[in-house]
Amino acid sequence: MKDNIQTGKSKLKPCDFTLCITVALLLALGIIMVLSASSPSSLAETGSSYTYVIRQVQSAAIGIVLMVMISRVDYRKYRNRKVYLFAYIASVVILLFVLIPGVGVEVNGAKRWVKLGVQFQPSEITKIGLIIFFAAILTENKDKLKKLSTGFLAPLAFVAVPLLILVLVQDHLSATIIIAVVVSIMMLMAGTRPLYFATLGSAGVGIAGLGLYLMAKYTEKGAFRLARLTSFVNPWAYEKTFRLASNTGVICNRFWRTIWSRIAGIVSKNIYTYQSHIMILYSQYWQRNWDS
């Protein structure tokens, strides 16, 4: 009986203390920075200084619960073919939810949000699903990763589908880049030859860049993306359209004093910024540490 109890207890493995403390510190720092950066705009827009930080705390609480639940799942279960194929299919399908009337939500000119009780970006779920999928297939085919077809072209074919949806449907370039970089790192760590990335990969990046440029030149969506990327050249011209970090132009005055540590030196919370409670966090951090 005692042996059975001990065996039962052994199934509940202790948590990684270092990892938990790191997550807790980063979470606490993020909440503090959100409160500091968002309180003026939150007060002006909602009448309360704590609107945005309350949302952040609520999201953090949900994240902690999910983290604990998922950490209790044996990672080897994700290697089951049905599990990782479902993760891939769900990751692709959920990206198309933005096209469903009444479900997809357009924010700041881009349709990349979904409202199903709560509003969220489906690309965030796609990132997790693709990590599960690629971890499984790269492990399953680890002996074939040195070959061009199975170790480089096949994985890229799988990742191309969600990337094309992100670019063409959601106009979500940042998520596209993040997923491409994460999958590339996973492939390299698993054993794909770096030579394939240095040659074919570089050519692919060049072709993708050319495609984005042509889209920017000849399509409305592409022009919108290019305008957002280059708005820092004349930030005040886009004050009422993109609300993109208008103080970037002011920050450039200090750029020559130090390359990075002063890049966000001059900050004005009440001047418009794109998602001010998020974009201004780093500038707030540097201002307090270098200007005080």
Which helices and strands occur, and which strands form pairs?
Elements (H helix, E strand, L loop, with lengths): L1 H9 L6 H30 L4 H21 L9 H13 L10 E4 L2 E7 L1 E3 L1 H19 L7 H21 L4 H18 L3 H25 L1 H11 L17 H8 L20 H4 L1 H10 L2
Antiparallel strand pairs: 1-2, 2-3
Helix pairs in contact: 2-3, 4-5, 5-6, 5-7, 6-7, 8-9
* Global mean pLDDT: 77
> How many whole angstroms does the radius of gyration measure?
22 Å
Uncertain spans: 1-10, 243-274
| Strand residues, percent | under 5%
Q: Order of strands across the widest beta sheet?
A: 1-2-3
What is the domain total for the residues? Answer: 3
Q: What's the overall geometry?
A: globular
**Major β-sheet annotation:** 3 strands, antiparallel
Alpha carbon gap, first and last residue:
64 Å
The overall strand count is 3
Summarize the structure.
With 292 residues, the chain is mainly α.
Please tell me about this protein's structure.
The termini are far apart. The chain folds into 3 domains: 73 residues; 125 residues, no CATH class; 57 residues, no CATH class. It is 65% helix and 5% strand. It has 12 helices and 3 strands; from the N terminus they run ααααβββαααααααα. The protein has a 3-stranded antiparallel beta sheet. With 292 residues, the protein is mainly α. 21% of the residues are buried.
